[in-house]
């Protein structure tokens, strides 16, 4: 993955990138269904609510602070949320570190690290994202993925989406 792609993935996660309902079942505008397991760092954060995240280390997932609730779990190795396909790995969240300047009213600094009870088994369907060493130049092509919301407030896309 190019640094600009992982930066965009992180940016999209943190800014709550929007998914639009379209004739293809709802996708990121101009997007498509990702090839199976092409985003092995993509994490499904679930429990009282559902959010996305990215695996940044075997025991750590970066997500949005507005997703913080007790009883969270994380799933890696997921493609279709409606089907158990075999490589999924579920982990219990045992700790959360919210950005110290997170503002729940403005969503500024909407960042959170989740500590997993057990490290993820690294392999072709689950591995940490390569974080960029520098910001991407203005005008760079970047990648964002996620399952996304297709209607508000309930519906969600069941498959990973890329623009």
TrEMBL record:
It comes from the Eukaryota. Residues 28-163 form the Peptidase S1 domain. CDD domains: Tryp_SPc. Keywords: Disulfide bond, Signal. This is Kallikrein related peptidase 14. GO terms for molecular function: serine-type endopeptidase activity. One of its GO terms (biological process) is proteolysis. Gene3D superfamilies: Trypsin-like serine proteases (2.40.10.10). PROSITE patterns: TRYPSIN_DOM (PS50240), TRYPSIN_HIS (PS00134). PANTHER family: KALLIKREIN-14, KALLIKREIN-RELATED. One of its GO terms (cellular component) is secretory granule. Residues 1-21 form the signal peptide. InterPro entries: Peptidase_S1_PA, Peptidase_S1_PA_chymotrypsin, Peptidase_S1A, Trypsin_dom, TRYPSIN_HIS. It comes from Pelusios castaneus.
């Amino acid at each position: 993955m190019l640094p600009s792609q992982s930066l965009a993935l992180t940016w999209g996660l943190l800014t709550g990138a929007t998914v639009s309902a379209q004739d293809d079942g709802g996708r990121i505008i101009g997007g498509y269904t990702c090839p199976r397991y092409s985003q092995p760092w993509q994490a499904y954060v679930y429990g009282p609510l559902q959010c996305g995240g990215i695996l940044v280390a075997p025991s750590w997932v970066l997500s949005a602070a507005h997703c913080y609730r007790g009883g969270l779990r994380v799933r890696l190795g997921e493609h279709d949320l409606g089907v158990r396909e075999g490589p999924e790995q579920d982990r219990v969240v045992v700790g959360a570190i919210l950005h110290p300047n997170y503002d729940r009213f403005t969503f500024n600094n909407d960042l959170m690290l989740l500590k997993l009870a057990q490290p993820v088994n690294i392999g072709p369907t689950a591995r940490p994202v390569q974080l960029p060493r520098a910001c991407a130049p203005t005008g760079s092509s970047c990648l964002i993925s996620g399952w996304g919301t297709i209607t508000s407030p309930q519906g969600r896309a069941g498959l990973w989406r890329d623009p």
